[in-house]
Amino acid sequence: MNGLLDKLRDGDRRALARAMSRVDATGRTDPALEAHLRQSTGDVPWWGFTGPPGVGKSTLIDALLVRLRERGRRIGVVAVDPSSPRSTGALLGDRVRMMRHAVDTGIFIRSLATHLHQGGLSDATVHCVRLLESAGYDPLLIETVGVGQNELDIATVADLCVVLMAPGYGDDIQLIKAGLLEIADIVVVNKCDLPESQRLLKEVREELAGAAAARSGQPFQAPSGGPSADADDVAGDVEVLEVEAKSGRGVEQLLDRLIELDGARRTPATAACRRERRVIGEIRRRAASRCEQAVARVLADPEAKSWIARLDRGEVSLDAVIEQLAAAALAEVRPAASEE
Fold this sequence. Notes:
This protein is an alpha/beta fold. The chain has 11 helices and 7 strands. It has a 7-stranded parallel β-sheet with strand order 3-2-4-1-5-6-7, sandwiched between helices.
């Protein structure tokens, strides 16, 4: 283990790839490797990019990579892809958009499967990012699988969250109000060359302004007409930027704001808060995964069929069945925990 870590710190990309494979093989982390990675400094920026499928996350990250390399940065990217329902491995279609960087030794891109985890990230994501940090990459970009309304795990992992939206992808209002904007540090409306983008920009800004007013206890009056020249000011603490990732329009401005905002928040107090939030998120994901697996095993036991049948006949309550199920599942979880 120590030899592998020494090699990746010295820039050995094969060693880094092998270490990541050890982390991602089952969606769980090698205990020895995990213990080492918890010694990471926390000084390297972790930027998360999330949003519904098809809004252009990979295309935007590709454009940011070009500009970061122009500034002499070595960048690590962890991109979470949908899992194959058969193999649970990553379906790599989105990575095609970043293939021009495959031969650039200043960029390391790793695709991870979700392992059917529904939060938008795999359980191995955090440690793969920490491996990139150990290997000297800075900054580190995390792209989530295309998320819907509730998959918000990225908020527990990234230092800054960029939420991407684009006109014409589902019900814009539902996406705006569903929780995605609540985790955003910056909202990017991509494909701003499309005529519907101005309507989406107006809706996003009004929703953010309304949320900010609700927090302050002040009434909010939406501006009449289109977005005003100072429309970003009414959005509260969240900045709204227009980008056209394919042409590069607005990408430089986004990068400048990411660097500026990250620097402003890099204080001892905020760093401690981020580390605690990240660890709590890991605990929740690991506990939820283990409990789900234990419940599945218990339900597959022949004895569970009698509980199901009695519940179906109305002989016992659902709460009573869940109590028995929870006790049996806890017995399943404890031996797994003791193995580590």
